[in-house]
Amino acid sequence: MIQVGDRLPALTLTEFVSVATEGCAIGPQPVDVSAASASKTIALFAVPGAFTPTCSAKHLPGYVEQAQALRDAGVDEIWCLSVNDAFVMGAWGQDQGVDGRVRMLADGSAAFAQATGLTLDLTARGLGLRSNRYSMLVVDGQVRTLNVEGPGQFEVSDALTLLGQAQALRG
User: Fold this and answer.
1) Is there a domain that residue 143 lies in?
2) Residue 88 resides in a domain
3) In total, how many domains does the chain have?
4) Residue 55 catalytic?
């Protein structure tokens, strides 16, 4: 399992872009994790699935609500990862009103979850291999804090916990 001090896996996630910009078309776009995290402080959290009860009622909304406080604490970007496709992540972000405050990143094949060792096998519940629920503070691609939830829990990966860690890291 990934640990504090480790670097994020050098792989590609996908993000649905709903507005065309220079050099970026509408639709799923690749996000090179190494390049996207370079020289930035990232508040990264992962959920087992988009549109699922705890993820939609508590986890993502907490990060949306605390987005400005996280930025004030030195966080450049907030990333939400889930083992879903970019279309689902884009729709979930729109449904939750993230409005650019949180990057909704798809780990469609669970490659990131597997590379970090933070998988959750929900095959018995018909959901297949998913990501565990966790949060981490990443500085220039390196994990500085890591908060992994126990099975069925939502106690340490919330936005307020990561906000406190970002504030402490900033000094």
Assistant:
1) yes
2) yes
3) 1
4) yes
d(CA 144, CA 125): 33
Predicted confidence at residue 123, as pLDDT, reads 73
Range of the domain at 69: 12-170
Token pair listed for 142: 């390196």
**What CATH code is carried by the domain that includes residue 38?**
3.40.30.10
pLDDT band (50, 70, 90) for residue 120 = confident
**Does the predicted model carry a pTM greater than 0.90?**
yes
| Rg of the chain (C-alpha set) | 15
3 state SS of 2:
coil
Those residues whose C-beta lies under 8 Å from the C-beta of residue 134, and which sit 6 or more positions away, are 45, 46, 118, 146, 147, 148, 149, 157
Active-site residue, from 36, 44, 55, 89: 55
Instruction: State which H helix or E strand residue 168 sits in.
Output: helix 159-170
CB 66 within 8 A of CB 160: yes
